Amino acid sequence: MKKGILKRLWKYVGKYRLAFILSILTAGIYVVLQLYLPILFGRATDLIIGKDNVDLNGVLKIGISVAICVLIAGLMQWLTEFLCTVISNGVVKRLREDTFKKLQRVPLSYIDKRPVGDLLGVEIGDADKLADGLLLGFSKLFTGVLTIVGTLVFMVMMNPIIAGVVAFITPVSLFTAKFITGKTYKFFKGQSEISGKQTAMIEETLGNLSTVKAYSQENSFVQSFDEVNAEYKKTSFKAVFFSSLTNPTTRFVNSLVYSSVALLGALLALNGSGGIFSVTAGSILALLSYANRYTKPFNEISSVMTELSGATACASRMFDVIDSKEEECSVVQGFGGQVKGNVDIKNVDFSYQADKPLIKDFNLGVKGGQKIAIVGPTGCGKTTLINLLMRFYEVNEGKIAVDGRDITELSRKELRTSYGMVLQDTWIRKASVADNISIGKKQATRDEIVAAAKRSHAHGFIKRLPQGYDTVIDDSSLSQGQKQLICIARVMLCLPPMLILDEATSSIDTRTELKIQSAFNELTKGKTSFIVAHRLSTIKNADKILVMKDGNVIEQGSHSELLASKGFYYTMYNSQFES
């Protein structure tokens, strides 16, 4: 699994091939120059050893060379960091885009099954952690690996025996890093998952804090949060515990390498043999410096591997979203002219869960221009029917047709733009009032927007806003009723051939509601309309009223017909006016 994730991340890195190659090149130059410095220092040391044997001119020349190497190495290090930042931020930017695009294309059922806070955690939190992990990985990993290889090459050139001893001890550090990384991955992944769960709980609580307080459930939610927080602490502790083993273990190996070089170098110097055993004071100094430089990257690489393990776990959650199944594409087939609004529902079965059927063998024929009201007790399937008409969910059996065309053969965009929809749950984006109203008709003029607002009776409160129609609003700027008026204005602007009104005036005062009902009556003339209502007095003028119960239509007819039959509708209607 982990290898597969790294392979997929590598494909994203491939988009920045030039920056990647340049970063390796600059890192290589930086490492070579850094590794050349100990040789220069060793030569300088040999020039000042011995009585009456000090070559100051030689030392000065070496000093100038050191200064040039340091300046160029500093520039190369900056370029490496810059290029690695470009790569890591670019990779995460593309991953974020792919994740967000996928969330626009998944079925509504996918969003319904996952807490919003968890998806926010993937899109924001996991992406940030991945960016940090990749940046550290690219910048430290390149220079670390090149430093290890380069140091061994320089040491071999100076003294193959000492280089051989260092290379022999090296695998201990590599095996340690691999073992720790393998242990930390599952804990970091669990940490990300619990973090998403925690974010979801916070979002849910703060978004509905008034309800929590109204029912005095603060302590209950605090207890639930504490349980999740304790779980997060436990998983985080395990992840940090294993990752913290990296430093002391690799430092022990580093000390072993350094002491081995010092001891062997001293013995060879005392022995005074020639050939590959020959060492000077300057070369011992250089070799000790290389021993330090050789072991340091192992510390960095070990910590990088730990960070990459956490980053890989975050990438895994992002890829889970990217790999999720999209809404199936329909055969793109148009209505073939103006939409008349004839809707036929034949033998439709539907359930959210296979073992809990909701709508069974549902049949309905609606002629263009008819006003259909849907009523019934909570959970009877009213809103579910709306979801099926809009193809937010697919029917399990049967079919729904508009103007004789099966809606599965139409593109979802074409189907949904033929409906105007006002829901009980409002949505306001952070934008101007005018932009919020024109969300379904971007090319609308200001005069058209104002006219739609007047028809929805929103013009009055909009004019009282600081900048009128140019006032930037968000979900917290307006009252629930004002937000609902904005949503009604959207439909008034688009004038679609069919309408869906799901408790469209539930948050509006009675006086304004009467005015809007009048506007709706005007708007729905000649348009097929589906109206979900709890206040039965608002749907007296419907051409047909469907009374639903347990997913079935148990009664249908006009208001007067249903009252005369004295059935379930008669009981519901009278219950709303009982003293």
Describe this structure in words.
The protein is an alpha/beta fold and 579 residues long. The protein has helices at 2-13, 17-46, 56-105, 108-113, 116-158, 160-207, 209-214, 218-244, 246-271, 281-322, 382-389, 412-417, 433-437, 446-455, 459-463, 480-494, 510-523, 559-565, 568-575; strands at 343-350, 359-366, 371-375, 397-402, 405-406, 419-422, 431-432, 472-473, 498-502, 528-532, 544-549, 552-557. The protein has 2 domains: 2-91 and 124-322, ABC transporter transmembrane region fold; 343-575, 3-Layer(aba) Sandwich (Rossmann fold). It is built from 19 helices and 12 strands. A 6-stranded mixed beta sheet has the order 6-9-10-3-11-12. A hairpin with a 2-residue loop joins strand 11 and strand 12. Helix 5 runs antiparallel to helix 6 (160-207) and helix 5 (116-158) packs antiparallel against helix 10. The longest helix has 50 residues, at 56-105. The two termini are 66 Å apart.
Largest sheet: 6 strands, mixed
Number of distinct helices:
19
The overall number of domains is 2
CATH superfamily of the largest domain: ABC transporter type 1, transmembrane domain
Low-confidence stretches: none
User: Mean pLDDT, as a whole number?
Assistant: 80
* Structural Rg: 36 Å
Strand residues, percent: 5-15%
Question: What spatial form do the alpha-carbon principal axes imply?
Answer: elongated
Percent of residues in helical segments?
55-70%
Annotated CATH architecture of the largest domain: Up-down Bundle
Structural class: alpha/beta
The first-level CATH class name of the largest domain = Mainly Alpha
Note the gap between the termini. 66 Å
Strands ordered across the widest β-sheet:
6-9-10-3-11-12
**Total beta-strand segments:** 12
CATH topology of the largest domain: ABC transporter transmembrane region fold
